[in-house]
Amino acid sequence: MKNEELKDQIKMIDISDKKFTGRTAVASVKVTAQAGLIKKIKNGKLPKGDCLAAAKIAGILAAKNTSSIIPLCHPLQLAHVDMCFEFTRGALTIISVAKAHYATGVEMEALTACAVAALTVYDMAKTEEKNIVITDLKLLKKTGGKKDI
Q1: Of 9, 21, 44, 75, which has the maximum CB count within 10 A?
Q2: Phi and psi based region of residue 144 (left: phi greater than 0; alpha: psi -120 to 50; beta: remaining)
């Protein structure tokens, strides 16, 4: 395959002419399991320890390293990342917020934070139950670029 053919197949978007603005993204993901397991997660009663603390740290670390694992994602300096947890019977919802002042958005960082936090919950809880399901990874809000949602 010729070099010319390769360059059109995949490319990082050129953001060199874009203005730096404040960017924010909010994402969420749902972890479903038996109500008893969700209660153990909420109360920090899993054999591996405090699942929520581990998930929060994992999510923040993942957001900070998103460009290392998503091939065409621009590396950027995050100004803020936070994670919070909401509980319902049989479900845990993980919400992440990512902020930066940059020329591209932080959606991928917020989504990656949620995904890795959910996987951390799964890892810490899998010895207690085998029917854990991770669903509904989605972007809830984005501001600071051309198209806010």
Answers
A1: 21
A2: left
